[in-house]
Write a structure and sequence with these properties.
alpha/beta, binds NADP nicotinamide-adenine-dinucleotide phosphate, Rossmann fold, 8 strands
């Protein structure tokens, strides 16, 4: 059964933190949650871009309850500072890990982690653990990770020391592994939260193929410029709109669904269309890989939870 915005329950009274709101899917996700009545914490790494995004959202929705949070999710220090800052928001009903990068050049963060793995998984892993008390405090918290159909191209789960340099680097394989990581995390977190009877669940979503700056940023590491426009145009040619791409995330964040649910587009092999509950590959559902990857993520980020 497909889902559309008409089915989104009233979000009044809910507080939802969305990362990566300055572009693409994140902007639309934040807008629709705010339109639905939620208080939305707009999390972004670039203060200027955040101010522009917030102003645009308020222009369209003058009564929206919007808060700001600066965080570079690729940096463990930045995530720690942001989590401390976020205590002022009180209980959190949902945490949406939307910020991400795709196929960036091989690069290590100041924590010694691969940039894609740090941005797409390790930063969000740490953030979830640090914000867990606030998610639990809401009485019905949920964590939504934006994965990708590309998780199917990971080949294997990234079950090695993430600070270790391995042989040949394929930026696309690393991206696929980081998106597989989102699903391994979702299933393991959900299972661990249930085992501890915590009132928190984890879900995942993917947008299919949606026109955003994801491709151009990964290829140029720039927000604008000639090459950026060419990559943006190439992505737009074959993709559905970013508005449509945000629907699976909105479904996972607001629909009455059990933990572990994965939402994605319903048509053209999950590439476009209204969202529905979809499946992920066998590797993402492998409980031994989920467990081992969780332990490794704890070691890499220095946090143990739930
Ligand atoms: N578009 C698709 O077809 C597609 C397909 C599958 C999965 N996804 C996933 O969808 C999510 C959203 O991507 P998008 O397509 O909307 O791409 P996008 O237009 O490039 O937006 C990415 C957002 O993430 C933010 N971001 C990147 N690195 C960050 C960091 N270190 N700290 C904080 N924020 C950071 C960006 O901030 P700046 O504006 O500062 O750069 C931007 O707001 C990603 O997780 C991506 O993997 C997208």
């Amino acid at each position: 059964m497909t889902w559309d915005l008409g089915q989104m329950p009233d979000q009044t009274g809910r507080t939802i933190l969305v990362t990566g709101v300055t572009s693409g899917l994140g902007t639309h996700t934040a807008r629709e949650l705010a339109r639905g009545g939620a208080r939305v914490i707009l999390a972004a790494r670039n203060p200027q871009k955040l101010a522009v995004t917030k102003a645009a959202l308020l222009d369209e929705l003058p009564d929206a309850a919007l808060e700001d949070l600066i965080v570079d999710v690729s940096s463990l220090d930045s995530v720690r500072s942001a989590a401390e800052e976020a205590t002022r928001f009180g209980a959190l009903d949902a945490l949406v890990h939307n910020a991400g990068v795709m196929a960036t050049p091989e690069r290590r963060t100041s924590d010694g982690l691969d940039l894609q793995m740090a941005t797409n998984h390790f930063g969000p892993f740490l953030m979830t653990g640090l914000l867990l008390p606030q998610l639990v405090a809401s009485g019905d918290g949920r964590v939504v990770s934006v994965s990708s159909a590309m998780h199917r191209f990971a080949g294997k789960a990234p079950l090695w020391d993430p600070r270790e340099r391995r042989g040949r680097h394929s930026r696309w394989v690393v991206y696929a592994q980081s998106k597989l990581a989102n699903l391994l995390f979702t299933h393991e977190f959900d299972r661990r939260a249930r085992a501890k009877s915590l009132q928190v669940k984890a879900l995942a979503a993917h947008p299919g193929y949606a026109a955003t700056h994801l491709l151009s940023y990964g290829q140029t590491m720039k927000g604008s410029g000639g090459l950026t426009s060419i990559f943006d145009a190439a992505m737009k040619a074959g993709a559905q709109s970013a508005e449509m791409g945000a629907l699976p995330t909105l479904m996972a964040t607001t629909a009455d669904l059990p933990g572990g649910t994965y939402c994605g587009p319903s048509r053209m092999q999950q590439m476009r269309g209204l969202p529905q509950v979809v499946g992920s590959n066998r590797l993402s559902r492998d409980t031994e890989s989920q467990r081992r990857f969780w332990d490794l993520s704890e070691q890499a980020t220095g946090i143990t939870y739930p």
